[in-house]
Structures are given as C-alpha cells and as structure tokens.
Amino acid sequence: MTDEPVTSRRAFLAGTAAAGAGLAASAAAAQTPDPLITEVQEWASVFGDPVDATPYGLPIEFESHVVRRNVEWLTESTASSINFTPIHALEGTITPQGCAFERHHSGAISLSKQDYRLMINGLVERPLVFTFDDLMRFPRQISTAFCECAANGGMEWGGAQLEGCQFTQGMIHNMEYTGVMLRDLLAEAGVKPEGKWIYVEGADASSNGRSIPLEKALDDVMVAFFANGEALRKEHGYPVRLVVPGWEGNMWVKWLRRIGVYHQAVESREETSKYTDLMPDGRARKWTWVMDAKSVITSPSPQAPIRHGKGPLVITGLAWSGHGKITRVDVSVDGGNTWTPARLTGDVKSKALTRFHHDMVWDGSEMFIMSRAVDETGYVQPTKQALREIRGLNNVYHNNGIQVWWVRADGEVENVEIA
Ligand SMILES: Nc1nc2c(c(=O)[nH]1)N[C@H]1C(S)=C(S)[C@@H](COP(=O)(O)O)O[C@H]1N2
Ligand SMILES: [Mo]
C-alpha cells in the first residue's frame, strides 16, 4: 500500500471521530476503559494447543460458517448434486479445496493411487495404460485456473432469486494445479492424423464422458494430481483430474480413467444437450465451451452485509474470463449510471480468478452496486437483460450477466435486478 491512501483514510477516521459521527469503538475508547486492552486475557495466561493437537489443521472455530452449502430443492439426491463455494467470505484468488464447490453426477468415489489406471486408446499409434507412478515420471507444469460449472447463475435467468453470491455465482473455484500436459501423454501414444477429437471419461459410475477438440487437448489441457500444493481432494477427483482452462466445468473430468482419440465428437450416453444452449426460437447454440467474462461483488453482498455503518468501505469481488486475462473491472454504486475502474489487486492471470477492490467512503444511503468485467479480447460483461434479449428464457446455462446488489441504509444487502 502506498502512503497516500493510508494518510487520507487516517485523516477521515480522525475527522469523523472528532465530529462524533459513528466509529463507536474509537469513541468509546476515549471514555470507558476497554477490558480487551486493560485486562490480562485468558489466552495470555495459559498454554495454547501443543504442536501435534491437529496433525492436519482445520479452520479455527470462529470461521465455521465459511463452508460449502447446497440448495436443497435444487436436486433430488445429494449424490447427483452440486454445492456452492462461500465466495462471499473468501479473499484473494485461490479457493481452498475444503470449501471449493463440488459437482458429482454419481457421488465422489474413493480411488487409490495403487488402483489408478489411465488408458489412452482410439486413433493412436500405441494404445497405452499409465499407472499413477508412470504419470509422476513425466515433466510437470504448474497452472492456475478457474473451474466454473456452466450452470453457475442458472437459477437467476428468470429474475433475482437466491440471497447471496455463494448461491448465485458460487459454482466456481480457482486452484493452482500441478500435473503433466495432456499433449505430452498424447505424444507418447502418437495421435494418428485422422484423430481430431478426444473423448474423456472418469472412473465413477456416471463416467461423465465428454468430447474435447484435439486442438484444445494439445494446447493447455493438464492431467493434474496436485491442487494448491497438496494432493487433489477426493471430491475434486483424487488422484487425477483433467484441467481444461477457460472451458466449462463439465469437461474437467475427475477420477480420469480413459482418453480415446476419435475422428469426430462422441455423443455422451445419457444426454444429448451437452454444450448446447437453447435459444428462444427453439434452435440451440452448439459447443459453447468457453466461459465468457464475468464478475461479481463478493462483499458487500447478501451474506456479507455492512456492519460498520457509514464511512470507509471496501468493496471487493472476483472477475474471470475463459478467453484470457481480465483487463478491467468497472464498479458502479449508483445502479449503472456511473462507473469507476476498480483496482485489480495482485497478479492477473489468464483464465484464472482476478481479485478487484474499490475503496470508497459510504455516506450511509442506499446503493445499487454492480461490477462489470472486461477481458483482453475487449469483450464487456453484459447486463442480464441484454443476455435475455439474445438468448431468451429457455436456457439456463452460461449466465454471465451483471449482478446487482441493493445495499440498504441499514447495511443489509439484497439480490435485485434493475430495469
Ligand atoms: N468423473 C466426473 N467428472 C466430473 C463430474 C462428474 O460427475 N464425474 N462433474 C463435472 C462437472 S458438471 C463439473 S461442474 C466439475 C466440478 O468439479 P468440482 O467437483 O471439482 O468442483 O466436474 C466435472 N467433472
Ligand atoms: Mo457442471
């Protein structure tokens, strides 16, 4: 942080304290002694936990509300369901695996490294089977990428529905993966010239078979076994999953067991509507794999209301694009009449979550706050209304429309839409 904003913020704090407007803690400190300052606290008079109290640590009990949550009415069974990342309570860009959303079609399976096999067959010179140890002998790469379910925001097509960005935009996570490039494994097998597509399958009962064009497979697709520095968690595909940067989550096959090379796309067995978005005239947009640029203000938001009253306010959120880097995020606090570029905080990575901050002074009156992402292709995140005009209401996938939060004067926040 530079000196300037710190100084002006201090000046502001001093100014309001002097004027007696809000900032209860500092005002009270002047009159009544604060026992947290004047008394010796219990935690300062006893031993804390020994080093081996938790061989693998969990978040402290005060953060126990920061968990994945599902929406019960959404699906019939929790084995074939989805839950949501608590993005309203996270900061930075990396999603801890323990609270990263899960989407399973037939539940998360326990597959050991010993029992793990990956087959590459189809239009290849040498069909191959890799053990987990075999994979560990290929050159490794590191890549940070967001994984977003195509259904993220789907419940909001008809209108503002769910209270909280965890539920409206939380089918997303962003991890730092370590693994081997799929192109290296395909080179080992030797793709025949007729091979134009791969078909990838998982070892779970649903298998989640998906076709991916060979061009993408040879580009930045990774066969990953570490996420955020540790082994993949069971629910994210242990021991091996596919990472398909920028493309919709359903292609990120977990518990990866087979990669077939074919001359055309293989239709998966249970659904024919994969990768298609239904349009108002009944036609479908086909092969909509890439996730368009999107952003959302994570705080304040319905689950993260303003508790401190008027004065300095940090607005923060996330932006991402499947087409590359985020170049700008604009924030509006007046329902889209005026926009100010937010700070892109930390490193901006291609096809990964970008954190933005917008520091303002809140006068305590109601606001309609929203964010609008722009990516390196020049694409500007559309309003929900603009999306509906093009795609109609038949479709629930790929809703990347602008989210509006209504901040009330009491600091509570609601999910709304403005005409
Ligand atoms: N084998 C397998 N892979 C799968 C799925 C599945 O059910 N089985 N679900 C897919 C879907 S629809 C999504 S959105 C992502 C979710 O990944 P996550 O559970 O790590 O969040 O995994 C994909 N890969
Ligand atoms: Mo998904």
From TrEMBL:
<keyword id="KW-0479">Metal-binding</keyword>
<dbReference type="InterPro" id="IPR014756">
    <property type="entry name" value="Ig_E-set"/>
</dbReference>
<dbReference type="InterPro" id="IPR006311">
    <property type="entry name" value="TAT_signal"/>
</dbReference>
<dbReference type="GO" id="GO:0050310">
    <property type="term" value="F:sulfite dehydrogenase activity"/>
</dbReference>
<keyword id="KW-0500">Molybdenum</keyword>
<feature type="domain" description="Moybdenum cofactor oxidoreductase dimerisation">
    <location>
        <begin position="285"/>
        <end position="404"/>
    </location>
</feature>
<dbReference type="Pfam" id="PF00174">
    <property type="entry name" value="Oxidored_molyb"/>
</dbReference>
<dbReference type="InterPro" id="IPR000572">
    <property type="entry name" value="OxRdtase_Mopterin-bd_dom"/>
</dbReference>
<keyword id="KW-0560">Oxidoreductase</keyword>
<protein>
    <submittedName>
        <fullName>Sulfite dehydrogenase</fullName>
        <ecNumber>1.8.2.1</ecNumber>
    </submittedName>
</protein>
<dbReference type="InterPro" id="IPR036374">
    <property type="entry name" value="OxRdtase_Mopterin-bd_sf"/>
</dbReference>
<dbReference type="InterPro" id="IPR005066">
    <property type="entry name" value="MoCF_OxRdtse_dimer"/>
</dbReference>
<dbReference type="Pfam" id="PF03404">
    <property type="entry name" value="Mo-co_dimer"/>
</dbReference>
<feature type="domain" description="Oxidoreductase molybdopterin-binding">
    <location>
        <begin position="111"/>
        <end position="266"/>
    </location>
</feature>
<dbReference type="InterPro" id="IPR030835">
    <property type="entry name" value="Sulfite_DH_SoxC"/>
</dbReference>
<dbReference type="InterPro" id="IPR008335">
    <property type="entry name" value="Mopterin_OxRdtase_euk"/>
</dbReference>
